[in-house]
Amino acid sequence: MNTSSNRTQQNKKRVQQSKNRVQQNKPNKKQKSSINPSSLIQAAEELKLSKHETKLLYMDMDLNPRLKTNLNKMGFIKPTEIQEKTYKNLILRQNLIGIANTGTGKTGAFLIPIIHNLLDPNQEQFKSLVIVPTRELALQVEQEFKKLTVGMEFRSSCHIGGTNLKKDINRLKQSNDIFIGTPGRLIDLINRGDFNISQVETLILDEFDRMLDMGFVNDIKKIIGRMKNRKHTMLFSATIDPKQKLLIHEIVSNPITVAVSNGETSSKNVAQDIIRVPVGANKFDMLKKLLAGQSFNKVILFAETKRLADRLSKKLNQSGILSDQIHGNKSQNYRVKALNKFKTGSIKVLVATDVAARGVDIDSVTHVINYQLPLDYDTYIHRIGRTGRAGKTGMAYTFID
Questions:
Q1: pLDDT tens for residues 149-204?
Q2: Domain range annotation of the chain
Q3: Of 216, 309, 208, which Cα lies nearest the Cα of 249?
Q4: DSSP code at position 300
Q5: Do 37-48+268-400 and 58-259 share a fold?
Q6: Stated pTM of the model
Q7: Which whole number is the average pLDDT over 76-105?
Q8: Architecture of the 37-48+268-400 domain
Q9: DSSP line for 83-118
């Protein structure tokens, strides 16, 4: 009876912890945006892309030949700037903080050195953990790992909310080389005793600025506190919050910092403008007219709340504009299907909350539209980073009420 009672109490505690995390991540409706709207205007004629050019090829890099072959098969010929400037340090397993705009190859920057070292017969085998803020980003990291390791006998294990817990537990019983997950699910598995985190030597926090905010910081601290054999730490993001510097240095000791963007300004290859909504004007009608433009082929529309996302998607479909939505109340299966429809062009508009600001890597998004002014500039940077990726240009509009 005592054992059953203890289990019940533990389950109640986990449920309450999950509720607390959800509550912490809910936007405060009373909060006002800290953004000056005039700062969100970047005229197209000012859009001059200073593209990083490198003569270095993957084939010339000190990488395992099998990894080079897979990179070539994937169509990757040259490293991106963040990859070129970090790979030597990461192959040596040095602690590192990497700052680079979205769509610049940060995932490859940490996966390529990990795979190279896993292939090295002279190195002891090690396990890595990649922690990300969203389910979508976790799935994309795992997909990238699988593509880079085709023909190699490496295993990955992805753990995110909204999926079958028993399947997660069974995956953890296998011999995995890399674990990828969101903080909430990882904490649940650790607390249950199903994930022995002490076996992991390498830690990667992707989009670490979001990870260290009030919604995730306690989970991250708990996970790191149990990594008794951690030897190597990497932090990557597009932005860095000066207020987090003390916490960052508690997490990673003596890191090398590589910044290919300053971590404060928005991507220069995204033209930006604002749309002021006059008093009494029909904002949704203004949105429809905007979307009627010929160049609006693949659009992500950001809303501040799940309810508004639902309403906008419904009204767009009723207006003949094919759309779907992703947000925290949608099941993982629903979110995956919606993203696939958007990727394949079955829908024109993907309506999303900030679950899509991090972790949605879709080619050729032509526009990002903020239906409302985001609460802060970091959020804005990550949202508009969904367009203008991999050297392409994009356009972002923000409605100002």
A1: 999 999 999 999 888 999 999 999 999 999 999 999 999 999 999 999 999 999 99
A2: 37-48+268-400, 58-259
A3: 208
A4: E
A5: yes
A6: 0.70
A7: 91
A8: 3-Layer(aba) Sandwich (3.40)
A9: HHHHHHHHHTT--EEEE--TTSSHHHHHHHHHHHHH
